[in-house]
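Section 4.2 – Deliverable D4.2 (structural model, holo form)

The reporting period included a commitment to supply a predicted holo structure for the target in complex with NAP. Inputs used:
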Amino acid sequence: MPKTAFITGITGQDGSYLAELLLVKGYTVYGLIRRCSTFNTDRIEHLYQDPHDPNYRLRLMYGDLSDASRLAGLIAQIKPDEIYNLGAQTHVKVSFEQPVLTGDVDAIGAMRMLEAVRQSGRKVRYYQAGSSEMFGNAPAPQNEETAFEPASPYAAAKLYAHWVTKNYREAYGIYAVNGILFNHESPRRGATFVTRKITRAVARIKLGKQKKLFLGNLEAKRDWGYAPDFVEGMWRMLQAREPGDYVLATGESHSVREFCELAFSRVGLNYKKHVEQSERHMRPMDVDYLRGDASRARKVLGWKPKVKFEKLVEIMVDADLVMAKEGREDFRADSGIFG
Ligand code: NAP
Ligand code: F7E
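Output (structure tokens):
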């Protein structure tokens, strides 16, 4: 029987790749979208289907993770086999500026979803989008046994979601899993995350459209993978015989400075001539060094990332060059207000 999936956060980077993957696998995909005064569906426009087509398999529904009654109503209406809770306020620095909203959406939002699942009485498989940020400055390499040390309102909110997901699995027997995903990027990454901010700037500087790139902490190290590899891991988690929690990571860690060096050199530029540090992009507290150990996912799920650091940088720079040449890039992230 073809399956039905419900994705919150379908308009985001991961939601868009996951929707693609599930449609190819024959799923009917329902996606939660927020009502906005401007369109927020750029990342899934290539997947649109005519709702009058009887084989219409991508169905977008208005809703919000802050609206419990709507979430319960949607789950009752959709009757999903699988739920992927990817919706969140995802920016760590913004979580210091909007801690209450971040807690409401990222922590209580997950609880609203779990309660809707529990009260529906249906057998649903539930994926919770957890984050390596929950490890904070715990020693690397971090895996499922590493003690969490959240270092931001975002990380603390995600940790609440992590624990209640585990609790609903153990207390109610719900097939609920936590993916603890290290940073994963792509040409669809939001422009205010550091990798995309860098690759967009590289393209624009190369074409003479921008002069400087202002960044914060250049010494922070992250384990950066490729988003399409990671959404495949999410799907695998919901196909396993038993529910569990899994780290997804590449096992390599590189600094923001190294990312700059490689990205600028891809177009024959020296980052030192263009990158400046600015207080504006520093956080009240940062996470210094993340490097994941995904052995459990490899062993139990057979999951392995295909794209590593150098290739990722190439993919992102090349895609941004094409966009900038076609004048399709958005200049707003260069103003220094965002990011
Ligand atoms: P993203 O591109 O920032 O997308 C976030 C999604 O959440 C968007 O669809 C956004 O909708 C939606 N959203 C925000 N607030 C919402 C609300 N109140 N109600 C419903 N939906 C809401 O994030 P991503 O990179 O795809 O990440 C997906 C998930 O994985 C997130 O939960 C994130 O915290 C987690 N995660 C990401 C990474 C990573 O490296 N990418 C690593 C670990 C964990 P709009 O488009 O309308 O804003
Ligand atoms: O920062 C440093 C910054 O914002 C990475 C989210 O998807 O991954 C992401 O969170 C590092 C940090 O990602 C700038 O201080 C320097 O040390 O790209 P980021 P993040 O904070 O790691 C995790 C796994 C998630 O779960 C989150 O949802 O880069 N950095 N200069 C900068 N960061 C930004 N954004 N902008 C700068 O100018």
